[in-house]
Write a structure and sequence with these properties.
membrane, 71% helix, phosphatidylinositol-5-phosphate binding, Ventricular zone expressed PH domain containing 1, mainly alpha, Melted-like
């Protein structure tokens, strides 16, 4: 890992975090997976949700990492680590109490979501991301769910069969009115989803009951 990433993440040094933007993308690209893994460790610590310094360090580092991934077009190389960090957010509280701002882990999920799902036309990336993305449909905030459904609709346009294995979750979300964008997606790709019609019908009573 690049020595500046090692310093900033290892010591959680907020005073040096901004210096990451002075480095060329190509200079840090090889370090991104390891940096993401270190961020996952930091964000999983017991005091992360109350540690403002650590949250600020993580936020800055994620911004730098996602920028470098886009500029170097290296999403496929770092997708596993990026999706791994994204998935780890589901282990924590994502919904704020009352009208408070997003929780720390909801911020992480939101910050990396677009970096992952903007690559909806890259099947290898989507194969890793979609199983995690559908989990957010019931676990995330309303804003996160809305954005997620929009990206998943785009993914369906490119590779609808990747969503077919998650029919039950998607249909449940549609019936509960949570992800309106996906309704058009399913209707437009009915042939792909037709193999799961029986599952839809079987789960429908439970879905309506849960609603």
């Amino acid at each position: 890992m690049h020595q500046l990433f090692r310093l900033v993440l290892g010591q959680k040094d907020l005073s040096r975090a901004g210096d990451l933007f002075s480095l060329d993308d190509s200079e840090i690209e090889d370090s991104l997976t390891e940096a993401l893994e270190q961020i996952k460790i930091i964000s999983s610590s017991s005091d992360y949700q109350t540690n403002n310094n650590d949250q600020a360090v993580v936020e800055i580092c994620i911004t730098r990492i996602t920028t470098a991934i886009r500029e170097t077009e290296s999403i496929e190389k770092h997708a596993k680590a990026l999706v791994g960090l994204w998935d780890s957010c589901l282990e924590h509280n994502l919904r704020p109490s009352g009208k408070d701002e997003d929780t720390p882990h909801a911020k992480i999920a939101s910050d990396i979501m677009s970096c992952i799902l903007q690559n909806y036309n890259r099947p290898p990336v989507m194969a890793l991301a979609i199983p995690i993305a559908v989990k957010f449909l019931h676990r995330g905030t309303k804003e996160l769910c809305r954005n997620m459904s929009n990206y998943l609709s785009l993914a369906a346009i490119s590779k609808a069969d990747l969503l077919a294995d998650h029919t039950e979750v998607i249909v449940k979300s549609i019936l509960q009115g949570m992800v309106k964008g996906l309704r058009t997606c399913v209707r437009s790709h009915l042939k792909v989803f037709s193999g799961s019609i029986y599952v839809w019908w079987k789960v429908r009573p439970r879905v309506l009951e849960a609603s």
